[in-house]
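User: Second chain of the day. Same drill as before.
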Amino acid sequence: MKSKHLTLLSISSACLAACSPSLRSPPVSASAAPAASSVPAPQIQRGEGLESVIGESTMSLTRRFGRARIDLSEGDARKLQFISQNCVLDIFFYPLERGSTPVATHVEARQRKGGGDADRAGCIEEVERSVAGG
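Assistant: Same format as last time:
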C-alpha cells in the first residue's frame, strides 16, 4: 500500500510540475525578430531649396560644405551637422534599399543662438557661403 501511495504521489508531482508556469519553456514565436523587409523605407523630405542636398551622399556634401562639426552613426543611419555664423544644419542619411549607400533624406535647420527654427534652404546657402569664405 505504501508503494502505491509513493507511486501516486510521484505521478501527481510530475503532473503538477508539468503544469507549473515557472517550469514550462516559454512559447516560441515565429516573429520574435523582425524581418529585414519589415523595416520601412525612409521618408524622403521634399521642399523648395532642398533638392541640391536630398539624395546626395555624405562624401558629396562634405566636399560641398567642408568637414562636419558633428558626424554621428547609428546602425545604417548617419547624421552630419554643419554650421554657419547664424544657423545649424543637420542632414540625415539613410539607405534607400537594404545594403545601399546612405543618402540625404532629411534636413533640419535652426538658429545658432537660441535654437529657434531657421529656413532650411536659407541655412544651406549660408553654410555653403561660409565654406566659400563669403
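Confidence is low (pLDDT under 50) at residues 5-17, 19-35.

User: Great, on to the next one.
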